Amino acid sequence: MNFLLLVVCLCTLAGCIEEFEADVPAEETSLLVVEGTICSSGLNTFVLSRTTSLNSQNDPQKISNAKVSVRGSDGSEYATEGYNGQYYCWIDTLYSDKEYWLHIETDGDVYESEPQHPLRTEGIAELSGVQHTPESDIDILVTTDEPADTTKTNYYLWKYLETWEVHPVHTTFLYFDIPSMSPVYRPNQFPERGWKDATDETILVGASTNYKKQHIKKYRVYGIKRNNERIYYRYTTLLNQRAITKAEYEYQLARRQAASEMGGLFTPLPSVLPSNIHCLTSDKRVIGFVGCSLNTTERRIFLDASDYSIDHPKIDALEWHENCDVILCCQIASAGMYLCVWEDHGQVAPGLVTAWTTREYLDVTCQGAYIDMPWYWEE
Fold first, then answer.
1. Domains of the chain: total
2. Which residues contact 247 (CB under 8 A, 6 or more apart)?
3. N or C end: fewer C-beta atoms under 10 angstroms in the chain?
4. Position 16 in a domain
5. pTM for the full predicted model
6. pLDDT digits (tens, 9 = 90+) for 64-103
């Protein structure tokens, strides 16, 4: 049980599974939705839910009482442990000459995905950030290793985890001490920098159709706006790559269209998306696609703002007070403001000048950042 709770926490933090919230017509409610990939040498996660009607305000119903396992043509079976609609199992090794499928038993019905040979994924030969003009966004480009078979189209799915450095709008080494009614030197009251993470949920797929020898080179996976805080200082992305079949590629494209254009005249309803999962005990339709992989590959890059033309607007959040006195300083500090500037000109006009701001402009944790440097940051 402790292992299961640990697994749940790890997967929640990693954001490795994206639940597909599909709305379908009222007459096609309670369809099974399955998300997940069978993969060698790792923790496999499968998400099970049921659809709601198109006009429903409720989230998809999570299925927590199903029996789920990964089965192989060699007689192997990997049972899962379930928690809150998510099912987990660890698979050590898959074999390319065997077929594997997902087996599900729920609410009196049995479902299985089509048996598949696990695909091998090439490595990532190059990952780069390119800005074509000073005014353009920064494109993240990927080049795969040369594929083993250069005569057939290769299909890929990418996911990425971002981390970027965050600095405060203002810094201060001063602190106004109300009891003594005077400024004191306090250099470490706020962290100098912090970090944020994000996992993008956009469906990113690509095909080698238009590439020489079916070798994808400098393919634009995604872009970063030059005025986005992600690139203000230092940025890193960890790109995960998985080879997929043509059928899964077409499913992901249709799913992306359904998600971005729901309700469009020519948009396929989620209930008619291509699927490789079938009900063995009835004619019920299923939403989802289960892929099968021998491995995934990944690569990390770092981008420094100094290498690009970045549009970083400067914010002045200081509140200035001229001809200030210590009584007013006490009142300002009592209101939750922090001292940033103290210029005492004595008898020379304008006398005491102070500047103040609120904590949100001084403390990066107020921006949602954490302050423990990631272990990979100094690579």
1. 1
2. 274, 276, 289
3. N
4. yes
5. 0.84
6. 899 999 999 999 999 999 988 999 999 999 999 999 999 9
